[in-house]
Amino acid sequence: MKTDFELKIIKDYPKPGVNFIDINPILHHPDQFSAVINDLCEKITGRLSAEDLKSVAVIAPEARGFIFAAPVAYKLGLPLLLIRKEGKIPNNPYPFRITNEYTSYNMEVDGELLAKYNRYIYLDDILATGQTLASVRNALQARNKELVLSLHVTQVAALAPVRAQNADLKNLPIETIL
Fold first, then answer.
1. Is residue 88 part of a domain?
2. What backbone phi and psi angles, to 5 degrees, belong to 82?
3. Residue 3 lies in a domain
4. For the chain, how many structural domains are there in total?
5. Beta partners for 98?
6. CATH number, domain at 140?
7. What's this model's pTM, rounded to 2 decimal places?
8. Is the model's pLDDT at 5 over the cut of 70?
9. What is the residue range of 114's domain?
10. Which of 41, 69, 72, 127 has the greatest CB tally within 10 Å of its CB?
11. How far apart are CA 43 and CA 41, in angstroms?
12. Mean pLDDT of 107-127
């Protein structure tokens, strides 16, 4: 995708030593946001056959993953499961722990909806250390569910060696578009 903007990097946010990637420039320009959504959809349809798309759902973590996952799921006609903070799922919550580069916290998904599909596409905004992705993958595997693709808008390239050392990310197709 050709873009005429750069994602803003905010140093030492949310804590010292972390460089935060701000997605607001994408959201501020409807044409760029549309292009990002189209590119995410193209990555999915380029990786999965039409037959595969009949048996997968999109799963996305709160909150920035929702921004991209909802229009992608809509456009491709796929079900969407939301990974929410603990206490936000009123129907049969399936809880699990997420550990990432910032902190560790409890998350959950709707257990009844989770039971309906065995294969998932994970969609989020930024791939940093991969710890959130690894936590979600482990939670799904504990329920005999599979991540068939992990898709992100962009990644922190400098953290690729950290991700490469994470056994929980082995053999998982991971794609970014920017």
1. yes
2. -100, 130
3. no
4. 1
5. 105
6. 3.40.50.2020
7. 0.91
8. no
9. 8-176
10. 69
11. 5
12. 95
Asked if residue 2 is part of any domain, the answer here is no
Residues with Cβ within 8 Å of residue 31, at least 6 apart in sequence: none
Q: Which residue matches tokens 């709707």?
A: 110
CB-based contact 109:81 (threshold 8 Å): yes
Q: Is 1 domain-assigned?
A: no
pLDDT in tens, 122-163: 999 999 888 999 999 999 999 999 999 999 999 988 888 989
- By CB neighbour count within 10 A (0-12 exposed, 13-18 middle, 19+ buried), where does 165 fall? exposed
**Residues 6 or more apart from 76 whose CB is under 8 A from it?**
41, 44, 45, 53, 58
Half-sphere exposure of 134 (CA within 13 A, CB side): 17
Asked if the model's pLDDT at residue 1 lies above 60, the reply is no
Contacts of 150 (CB under 8 A, 6+ apart): 121, 122, 124, 127, 133, 172, 173, 174, 175
Rounded to an integer, the average pLDDT of 29-58 is: 95
Are 68 and 74 spatial neighbours (Cβ–Cβ below 8 Å)?
Answer: no
Helix axes 64-76, 30-47, angle to 10 degrees: 60
How does residue 101 score in pLDDT terms, banded at 50, 70 and 90?
A: low
Q: CA nearest 86: which of 96, 100, 99, 75?
A: 96
What the block records as the tokens of 2 is: 């050709």
